[in-house]
Amino acid sequence: AQVYNVNRKAFKESVKPGWHYFGRKMDVADFEWMMWFSTFRNHILFALAGHVIFAKIFTLVAPKHRSLIFGVYGGLAVLIMMGWTFMALVLSHCIILYSVALVKRKWMCFVAGLTTLASIKLEPYNSWQESLVTGSFDLQDILFYGGCGFSIIRGMSFALENCEKKDGNFTFSDLLKYNFYLPFFFFGPIMTFDRFHAQANNTQLTRKEREMWNITTKALLHLGVILVVDVFFHYLYILTIPSDMKLATKLSDWCLAGLAYSNLVYDWVKAAVMFGVINTVSTLDHLDPPQPPKCITMLYVFAETHFDRGINDWLCKYVYDYIGGDHDKIFKELLATFCTFAITTLWLGPCELVYIWSFFNCFGLNFELWVAKFFSLPPFSTIEGAMGEAMSRRIRGVFNAANFWAIVLYNVLSLNSLEFAKMVGRRLIFKGFPLSTLSVLFVTYCGVQLVKERERQQALLEEPEPVKPAEGDKEKAE
User: Fold this and answer.
1) What phi and psi, each to the nearest 5 degrees, are found at residue 297?
2) For the segment 53-93, what is each residue's pLDDT rounded down to a tens digit?
3) Nearest-CA neighbor of 278 among 30, 29, 51?
């Protein structure tokens, strides 16, 4: 009864008055979305609009110094929003990582960076640092941890790129200009230092054909998606229902499967829209930012599963690909995935739920390689070689369909709760077997085949046409 009352209370707190004239209440369970597009929408728009105006003026007046203007405007905006103590804290993190960067030892950069990151993620150090930031407003916690966390990750990228620099060192002002670029400062995405430095200091500022049209189209598309999500929040309470376990248990197997899937789709939409808004601003600054993550519907392997392409690119470049190489050695892959998810766990904030999420995703990534290695051995490789390409794709599709639901279950626990993920897993694997299990897998299998066919056609389009031999070459060959 106590759990039931808690769930009912959580449901009531997550549903607030919405469209009064239509008599609809609104699902407000996602604080991050509400912060961006409702509560603090005007503040964020004001800061980003100011950046766009200043950046455009100084890009026209002094294109050689535009990266300096980006840093100065961003630094002043952060100072006004968060105060001197927060600015001093971020600068101290930058000084530590810059000092270590001068030594040009990658392991020292990782030790310094991860220790600094741990200081804002682990008690009692994070509470002590947060208490230094004076003032109190609703967004202080979010901006504090976002600003400090992303600053440290950017500082590590700067330090690691400085280790690769053969002649001399990058300057401290290069780090500050990189770190205080306002659109990326609080919420990301992470753009590695080598890419940002090259693009922000490029003075040949030209637009591709129809680039402004594409930027405008994307901005209008994001606005349309925001409105559609707002409609869904008033009619489909997909974020709040999983918090009421008593209600969730009454749902059919298909409803539960759809609810788990829609939660992941929503999280992808949120990431795509929020990063898309920031990317639109940075594209106006002649930067090429990390693209939104791949849609969950298009995923069927753990190797492509991520919801923040910036962090994913950072981890792949400095950890996963660096240790794992070409990812075909079992023990190297195990070490690479372990290190990658250890850093990811620290980045997300160590707790029981994050440990479970990291373990299962790490296992899924390695299990894919183990299965691939196993089926590459005779007689399986011989059998696959004898069958046609289409039949091979169909058989792989069966495994990919099961893998898709492993991805859904392993990630829905971090978006909702461990109890909800366990309930979905029990219903789809045990209680719903065989009818619900096989029917859900069949529909997923059909979807995976559509995705595979689309990828195959794209690969054929991107494949360069074979060069035809000249007439003279033909005669010589004859």
Assistant:
1) -65, -25
2) 888 888 888 878 888 989 999 999 999 888 888 899 999 99
3) 51
